[in-house]
Specification:
alpha/beta; six-stranded mixed beta sheet; four-stranded antiparallel beta sheet
Length: 228
């Protein structure tokens, strides 16, 4: 379970007129997250991506604590959180010039992988065609998303965060992405937190949390939150 206790995040205003002042991006967020699929949605600027980055450890909260299975991870680095069991997939996947798909999967798994294991992690992509490809601009957005998911599967983490995973992928990839998430849960049995506006992704959520103005304005089952 991931617990967010009284999480507040502020940033200092950069313009001269507002020098010394702070803008509150998130305000007193309190959540216990342990469902299979949790979706966080809301308007642009509501603090969704900020919350995802806080969980991953990319930024630190101004106030409040973050706990993973009772362990306080608030002051942990990104690396230490990854070791503790948190994975984070960027909205725009990172490209790694000079590294192949096999290299990345080996790093994620911590051991060499057979072709069969690579096939399972690559979720529908032909492993024979992809394991030796370089993770660079030759891969489409959808393919890069699959690589990120494959790395998280290889790590087997207990809490995975996806920031708008549908961004930049084509319709075919999007339709398959939902199936990939279902398969991912079957392999990791951990919580998958998805930041998204897409109703088709929200439809698979066991729990939907709505952020607006940096606050939780709705929290409940898909049936309670989404219109019929």
């Amino acid at each position: 379970m991931l617990t967010l206790s009284h999480i507040t995040y502020r940033v200092k205003d950069s313009d001269t007129a507002g020098a010394g002042k702070e803008t509150e991006i998130l305000s007193d967020i309190n959540l216990d997250l342990n469902e299979r699929f949790v979706a966080i949605t809301g308007p642009n600027g509501s603090g969704k991506s900020t919350l995802a980055r806080l969980i991953a450890g990319i930024i630190r909260p101004t106030e409040g604590r973050i706990l993973l299975d009772g362990q306080d991870i608030t002051d942990m680095s990104v690396t230490d959180r990854a070791r503790a069991g948190i994975s984070y997939a960027f909205q725009q996947p990172v490209r790694f010039k000079g590294l192949t798909v096999r290299d990345l999967l080996t790093l994620a798994a911590g051991k060499p992988l057979s072709m069969g294991e690579a096939c399972e992690y690559l979720s529908g992509l032909c492993a024979k065609e992809y394991v030796n490809r370089e993770v660079n601009a030759s891969l489409s957005g959808g393919e890069l998303k699959r690589m990120e998911i494959a790395m998280i599967l290889a790590r087997g983490t207990k809490f995975s965060v996806f920031d708008e995973p549908e961004a930049g992928i084509d319709l075919w990839s999007f339709q398959n992405l939902i199936g990939v998430f279902r398969n991912m849960y079957e392999q990791t049995h951990g919580t998958i937190l998805i930041i998204s506006h897409q109703e088709r992704i929200l439809d698979i959520a066991d729990r939907v949390i709505v952020l607006s103005g940096g606050r939780v304005t709705a929290d409940g089952s898909r049936e309670d939150i989404l219109p019929g």
